[in-house]
């Protein structure tokens, strides 16, 4: 069951009516309904993994209570390590077990030592990276005294499994979401309308922009050996737009559905393609993951490496970005992806400009040519590195780069996709980026509630809805971040 499906439309409509018209007077019943609805939503994909989700949630629920009750530092630390072992052990098994086996056997084969080890047929549970990081931050924050354990099991179970964000985030912290579960929620018409507007924007980004970009990018990556470098540049460009429109579109939908239920979740994107440098980009891209890794990996590392000056800061950044890369999956390409992004930070660290935040100008045009140049250079760096992110293995990424840097860079591009689709997609990309640039000071790109004339708003709604029905590919692609 995905957001852009008929099944979800039926599910959410029924859930919404029960939530606000049947159980609206009783907070406990509303929270229980969220828990039941979230488990139904998750079971629609594969009911067998409900047990894993429930067991992990129950374990961390009781663990958080006992960490708080622990009378000695040794016991508290033991319970914390036990929780980390459970969380990381689960991730290592489901997400990385076969990767370690393959790497192990390949390492021995390099020395002509062949080891006959069979891989295990493991299905990756949907959303495991997201809900695991939620529970890990929960027990760490209790251990560090930053939050109190939740004694209401319904609230905690609903927090971990909250269905708008369960599959692909954002990774909400306990301090943001649980207080909202504990407070009576009142339906707010203006907030609900704006939430529906954000859902519509998310649908447009995913179903029109991302899915059409996939139609163009996928054939390029599948046949990169036979295509000129100019086409490979376009493939990397359309994939970069695809992954942004796909993931941020999902986040817009998740945010909108959460707002319809009276919740405000973590902001996950802040117009990353308008970033002035790579540090600015990571402050804007997948913000919930970036802040999570910053708080629980980067900051402890900076304390440990503080005696090494800028070299220590480089080491902390590299480890931090490698963790971000590995989080995405069990492949050396994701590790290389993290390494490359870590290397991009080095000039900023040397110049001492890594933490300098330059706010985008509020004028309708760029403040200077330098600003435009920095935005384009940052985008090109991201686009270049996304080749590694998209590649199936290191060899494929290397070969793509080798083909990319050739004399055929000036040749006429050869795209397998119909020209009409390509032109339509480019127009939709321009529309998406233009609207987001105009509204870059807003919380999301299509926040047009301030328009005084309803006719203008409804005209824009009609344009987006028509685009969704007319330009969405018949066979849409799955959300990219479902695989993580």
Automatic annotation (TrEMBL):
GO biological process, one term: alginic acid biosynthetic process
Transmembrane annotation, as ranges: 6-23, 51-67, 79-97, 117-140, 152-171, 227-245, 311-328, 334-354, 375-394, 414-435, 455-474
Domain of life of the source: Bacteria
Classification via Pfam families: MBOAT
Coiled coil: none
Keywords on record: Acyltransferase, Cell membrane, Membrane, Transferase, Transmembrane, Transmembrane helix
CC per GO annotation: plasma membrane
Compartment(s): Cell membrane
Main location: membrane
Membrane topology summary: Multi-pass membrane protein
Record-level Gene Ontology MF annotations: acyltransferase activity
InterPro entries to which the protein is assigned, alphabetical: Ac/AlaTfrase_AlgI/DltB, AlgI, MB_O-acyltransferase, MBOAT_fam
Membership in a protein family: Belongs to the membrane-bound acyltransferase family.
Record-given protein name: MBOAT family protein
